[in-house]
């Protein structure tokens, strides 16, 4: 799922390519993508893109009083065409979710890989009132060490949950939370309220370090290179079985129904491998 660092990089590219352009039209490849009916997308034709920003894992495109709010879900991403493909998109059979065409005949596509289609688009004159945005906690890159420490000491949740629960902290997901916990040398299943203030400040410093490293690696990249560059920056997430870049231990994994987390047993759990119930059943 696209997270804070890559979405910030995408915001910069959309700003460079499209801010100041007027919307020529929006073609929705599947009606399930559109979550609102008022105002109609057809009414936005001719509106200028005055700004683009991020809130949590959402992209917000401001169009003269109306905001398009996009959530790219698990497998969504963006593609820019200097010249829009000819003809409107047909019924949704491939990865295309929707296409925005602009007055310079360029196009911005929202795509989604896989069979599970969950990309969502809202159009609203008051985006802050949309439930998908109203529920969000403070931005992960904006919360200071004191507020982060209070957040940790005020919950019994695991550290992995604190970092990924969007109502507590917005913008970080499965991938970058693995990187933050590895950098902090903390178990994903450690209790947040067990850290104490010093431990929470240490975790906050790791969060800042990882976000800064990600920004350095992604800033300035075109849209079609951001996701690939993200993967290259990840040190533990998605690298089960590879050597930890810090200590050389094999990176381990805990699998869930649809996702998994990766960690280093030596760096993060004192040499102990966390129980992976799915793999444990296979090995019986």
TrEMBL record:
Catalytic function, reaction form: Hydrolysis of DNA containing ring-opened 7-methylguanine residues, releasing 2,6-diamino-4-hydroxy-5-(N-methyl)formamidopyrimidine; 2'-deoxyribonucleotide-(2'-deoxyribose 5'-phosphate)-2'-deoxyribonucleotide-DNA = a 3'-end 2'-deoxyribonucleotide-(2,3-dehydro-2,3-deoxyribose 5'-phosphate)-DNA + a 5'-end 5'-phospho-2'-deoxyribonucleoside-DNA + H(+)
Gene Ontology annotations of biological process type: base-excision repair
Keyword Nuclease attributed: yes
Gene3D superfamilies, sorted: 1.10.8.50, MutM-like, N-terminal
Cofactor dependency: Zn(2+)
Ranges where the Formamidopyrimidine-DNA glycosylase catalytic domain occurs: 2-149
Family: Belongs to the FPG family.
Name listed for the protein in its UniProt record: Endonuclease VIII
């Amino acid at each position: 799922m696209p997270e804070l660092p890559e979405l910030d990089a995408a915001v910069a590219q959309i700003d460079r390519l499209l801010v100041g352009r007027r919307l020529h039209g929006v073609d929705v490849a599947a009606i399930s993508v559109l979550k609102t009916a008022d105002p109609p997308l057809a009414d936005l034709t001719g509106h200028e893109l005055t700004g683009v920003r991020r809130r949590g894992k959402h992209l917000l495109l401001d169009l003269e009083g109306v905001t398009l709010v996009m959530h790219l879900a698990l497998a969504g991403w963006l593609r820019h065409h200097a010249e829009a493909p000819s003809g409107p998109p047909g019924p949704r059979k491939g990865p295309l979710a929707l296409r925005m065409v602009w007055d310079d005949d360029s196009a911005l596509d929202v795509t989604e890989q896989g069979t599970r289609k969950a990309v969502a688009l809202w159009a609203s004159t008051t985006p802050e009132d949309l439930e998908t945005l109203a529920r969000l906690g403070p931005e992960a890159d904006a919360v200071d060490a004191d507020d982060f420490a209070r957040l940790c000491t005020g919950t019994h949740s695991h550290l992995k949950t604190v970092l990924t629960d969007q109502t507590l902290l917005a913008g970080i997901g499965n991938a970058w939370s693995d990187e933050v916990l590895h950098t902090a040398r903390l178990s994903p299943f450690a209790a947040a309220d067990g850290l104490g203030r010093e431990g929470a400040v240490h975790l906050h410093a790791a969060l800042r370090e990882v976000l800064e490293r990600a920004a350095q690696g992604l800033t300035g990249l075109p849209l079609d290179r951001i996701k690939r560059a993200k993967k290259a920056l990840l040190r533990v997430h998605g690298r089960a079985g590879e050597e930890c870049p810090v200590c050389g231990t094999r990176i381990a994994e805990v699998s869930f129904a649809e996702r998994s987390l990766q960690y280093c047993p030596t760096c993060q759990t004192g040499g102990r491998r966390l129980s992976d119930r799915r793999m444990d059943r296979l090995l019986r």
